[in-house]
């Protein structure tokens, strides 16, 4: 009798449960989205004068823009780097204590803890190699038909000097017909970079690395800083603007990490002051960043010519190359932009399952691209090169183009970080985003990933019944749990999502640039620490003078 009654009630109970879910979604939808920062700050609805909400800026890179933005919202700046009662903390140099005291869902913190997976030369190289191996295995599956990028199509041939076999491979293949460039893994502003052209220079490098490796002190070092370098094939025939070398700085914005909301943003073109000569030993003719160009006595007089807007670059290429190269009109904003977006999305997918992610983490990464002089409409795939990705990109505004570009990039970054955080916190749909103006969505994790809801009684996106068992299994094996109550700050680093047991990063198709969401991209959960504290401290120490690159 009791069993039959229970069976009879099941349809009704199921309907009531569905109705409750719908009411919860309707209630979340009714939350005002025109003032998203107000919802994010609901813990301090009526702050007393002089009592916050507080924001902290560590360093001078972009400080005036960030400060003006926060003050326009009524926030107050604190100079106390140990202040834990903040709404936004933007630091040039990462500090472990910032992540340990971070209150998930209540605060915004600039820079993902382990963004070095993308922003160091060795980190990016290793991630792309591993992703390439995973994609290679996936291509053997009959169901995998999607066209994906190959690493060699956009990333110059590179070898690590901290690995003996790779070092020897480079020393063996070197010949004087090709120039190579040697870079420290975690430096910026052109520091520690030199070119390798001759067998004598290779022999000197070989002797130096060997002597360091033979040093007994070096062998005991937990992080072998002197060897943490890469050598990369130098692109000797770059496209030139009026005879000068240039590259393009664009932005990868991770506005939200739970779920991932990743964007592309246009930046500007950076030119050298001197004419390009591949045989010159003057690095200022090879490296385009402002730090190198400022060394010229002519910099103050000609600095406006070293930075072009993307519109200026587009007009120049239309005028100079459209007919001779057979390019479509506005190649910069069509073909070239699409290629940069594809490369950025590929790099993000290479590390997505390994990034440390909590609600409130966000990051702005500077990506530098070089165009080969052989570019043409039918073979542009092999003519756009990703040189590197940079954490804490330069946000100075010392020329007219930068005054036009940088404030907009910073303000939209903060707007998107605020809006996506509050929408995740209150279980609202991400799209459309009221604060999205110029950034282009590359990846929408809301529609593809398993992720914990921060608000309401539901902690996962709605899944079909067949998927529930796998989610429960993931919970038992280390998947991310819903965060504690808002009154209980989290401590320590959240375990990052890691690749599957095979060591791959998860086979994922490249994201559609129209929908912004790749298909069939699900992360498997695992555990990993951030890495040895000694390594982190050593790396941060080397970049202590970082003012962006």
TrEMBL record:
Matching InterPro entries: TTL/TTLL_fam (IPR004344), TTLL10 (IPR027752)
Residue stretches of biased makeup (Polar residues): 512-523
Source taxon at top rank: Eukaryota
Region described as Disordered: 457-549
Protein name: Inactive polyglycylase TTLL10 isoform X3
Source organism per UniProt: Mesocricetus auratus (Golden hamster)
Gene name for this UniProt entry: Ttll10
């Amino acid at each position: 009798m009791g069993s039959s009654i229970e069976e009879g009630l099941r349809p009704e109970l199921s309907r009531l449960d569905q109705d409750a879910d719908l009411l919860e979604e309707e209630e979340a939808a009714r939350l005002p989205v025109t003032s998203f920062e107000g919802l994010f700050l609901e813990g301090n609805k009526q702050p007393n004068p002089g009592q916050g909400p507080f924001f902290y800026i560590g360093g001078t890179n972009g400080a005036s823009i960030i400060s003006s933005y926060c003050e326009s919202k009524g926030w107050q700046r604190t100079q106390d780097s140990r202040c834990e009662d903040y709404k936004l903390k933007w630091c040039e140099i990462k500090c472990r204590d910032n992540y340990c005291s971070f209150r998930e869902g209540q605060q915004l913190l600039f820079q993902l803890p382990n963004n070095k997976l993308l922003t160091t030369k060795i980190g990016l190289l290793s991630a792309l190699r591993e992703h390439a191996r995973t994609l290679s295995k996936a291509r053997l599956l009959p169901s995998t038909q999607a066209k994906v990028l190959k690493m060699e199509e956009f990333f110059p041939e590179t070898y690590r000097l901290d690995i003996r076999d790779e070092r020897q491979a480079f020393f063996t293949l070197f010949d004087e017909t090709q120039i190579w460039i040697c870079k420290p893994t975690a430096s910026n502003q052109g520091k520690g970079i030199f070119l390798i052209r001759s067998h004598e220079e290779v022999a000197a490098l070989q002797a130096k690395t060997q002597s360091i490796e033979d040093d007994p002190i070096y062998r005991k070092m937990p992080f072998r800083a002197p060897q943490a370098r890469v050598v990369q094939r130098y692109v000797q025939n770059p496209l030139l603007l009026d005879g000068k070398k240039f590259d393009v700085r664009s932005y990868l914005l991770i506005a939200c990490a739970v779920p991932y909301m990743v964007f592309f943003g246009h930046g500007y073109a950076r030119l050298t002051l001197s004419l390009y000569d591949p045989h010159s030993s003057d690095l200022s003719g090879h490296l385009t960043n402002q730090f190198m160009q400022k060394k010229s006595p002519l910099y103050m007089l000609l600095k406006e010519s070293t930075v072009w807007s993307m519109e200026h670059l587009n007009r120049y290429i239309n005028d100079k190359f459209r007919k001779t190269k057979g390019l479509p009109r506005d190649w910069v904003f069509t073909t070239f932009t699409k290629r940069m977006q594809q490369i950025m999305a590929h790099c993000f997918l290479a590390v997505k399952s390994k990034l440390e992610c909590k609600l409130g983490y966000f990051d702005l990464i500077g990506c530098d691209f070089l165009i080969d002089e052989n570019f043409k409409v039918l073979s542009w795939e092999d003519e756009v090169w990703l040189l590197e990705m940079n954490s804490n990109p330069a946000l100075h505004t010392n020329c007219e183009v930068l005054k036009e570009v940088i404030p907009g990039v910073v303000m939209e970054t903060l707007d998107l970080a605020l809006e996506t955080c509050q929408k995740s916190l209150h279980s609202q749909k991400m799209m459309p985003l009221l604060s999205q103006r110029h950034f282009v969505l590359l990846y929408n994790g809301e529609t593809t990933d398993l992720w914990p809801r921060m608000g309401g009684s539901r902690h996962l996106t709605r899944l079909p019944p067949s998927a529930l068992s796998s989610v429960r299994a993931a919970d038992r094996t280390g998947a991310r749990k819903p965060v504690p109550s808002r009154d209980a700050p989290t401590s320590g680093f959240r375990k990052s999502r890691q690749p599957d047991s095979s060591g791959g990063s998860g086979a994922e198709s490249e994201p559609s640039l129209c929908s912004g969401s790749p298909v069939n991209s699900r992360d498997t959960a695992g555990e990993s620490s951030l890495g040895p504290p000694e390594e982190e401290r050593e790396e941060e120490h080397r970049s202590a003078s970082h003012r962006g690159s």
